[in-house]
Amino acid sequence: MKKILFTIFFYLISIKLIFCQDKNFYTSFNIQYKKYNEVCFPTTHNSFNYLIGPKQYIYPNQRYDIPKQLADGIRGFMIDIHDHDKIVPIKGNKVLVFHEQAVLGHEPLENILDYFNDFLADNTEEIVTIIFDCDVSDSKKVASIFEKHAIYKFLYHHNDSIGWPTLDQMIRSNQRCVVFSHCSGYSDWYLHQNNYCFENDYNNHNITDYKGKVIRGDTTKNIFIMNHFLYNPLQRKKVNKYTNQYDGLMNHITICKNTTGKYPNFLTVDWYDKGDLFRVVNEINRE
Length: 287
What we know:
The chain is an alpha/beta fold. It is 31% helix and 18% strand.
């Protein structure tokens, strides 16, 4: 009888770990002792473009806003930034967060940084990564916003001669916010994505389009941003709920692993709350 009870107890504990989505993401399976580039992070595409939150966005990619995503366990965030728009004038040195056109919904970059700063201040053993799809004329404009913001104290400063630290080292040094950008790198913390990462094709409309083709950077870089979402603005929730299921995610990961030789570091999805993102991420991190 004791043996049966122990087996049941162990099974329940194992299930909790496998499906872990709580704020102790980095203590699961002791991954805090892995290097940053050896870990898979659950990531959202167009993280700011949400359905439920303080702003109203048209054609959202995610159900919930960034604070809710952080609370649920998302740790990588793809964010579009702009300093110009065809319809809505952007004055001065303002940088806005929006997708394609500001009339579909927008926020100042400072507001988005507030969310991350508050989370990092309240959760001292957590690490987040911001990946900017950048349409800003001057990188210094973005850097200036960070340097004047409270989040600056949490920024990770990379040393190419040393390489990527472990998550534990990042936590102990309190450098817990990593920033990548398509814009030219500005400093040791505003990192040009193509110098460190490669990225597969994001222009996918059905599951047969998932080929693992690399479109940004190259596979000599050791951080893999894996785009796993389908474009269909009118049925975005439906198609991504389907493709985010376990088999769909694992099949695409296998294709990319065979093509690039690497598991994803940022497994990037739309409608993250639908499907098995966290289960798959935890399986990768157990490797």
